[in-house]
Amino acid sequence: MIRVVLPFPLRNLARVDGGVELEISSPVTVRAVLDALEAKHPVLLGTIRDHGTLKRRPFIRFFACKEDFSLGLPETLLPDEVVSGVEPFLIVGAMAGG
Fold first, then answer.
1. Rounded CA separation 87/82 (Å)
2. Looking at the domain assignment, is residue 73 inside a domain?
3. Which of residues 95 and 1 earns the better pLDDT score?
4. What is the gyration radius of the CA atoms in the chain, in angstroms?
5. Beta bridge partners of 69
6. Which of 16, 23, 40, 44 is the most exposed place for a label (fewest CB within 10 A)?
7. What is the DSSP letter of 82?
8. Are 81 and 65 in contact (CB under 8 A)?
């Protein structure tokens, strides 16, 4: 069971408290997690990734086990700690400004 932690605006939009648990078969990649998340919560379609290109939206970042997965390929395998549910996959809304 994969645990996904969403930023407050996306939790509010998806109407979930805390995180989301997803059942994903191997291989567990960034793309597989995002596909499963959007399938379970269709209201999130287009909020994390662009509808057409499926590229990560600006100001959205992905982290797992203190490692940034935002700029890697969507087919990047997630660490075993995330796959086993020990560590969460974090979707973070980045901040900008000065």
1. 5
2. yes
3. 1
4. 13
5. none
6. 23
7. H
8. yes
Residue 60, token pair as written in the block: 């959205």
Residue 64 has a CB neighbour count (10 Å cut-off) of 21
The answer, yes or no, to whether residue 94 has pLDDT greater than 90, is no
Q: What is the pLDDT of residue 37?
A: 97
Q: What is the β-pairing status of strands 2-5 and 19-22?
A: antiparallel
The CATH number of the domain where 8 resides is what? 3.10.20.30
* Domain assignment of residue 41, yes or no: yes
Q: Are 48 and 89 in contact (CB under 8 A)?
A: no
How confident is the model over 12-71, as pLDDT tens digits?
A: 999 999 889 999 999 999 999 999 999 999 999 999 999 899 999 999 999 999 999 999
According to the model, what pLDDT value does residue 92 have? 96
For the chain, what is the domain count?
1
CB 25 within 8 A of CB 45: no
* Tokens (6 digits) for 77: 């395998």
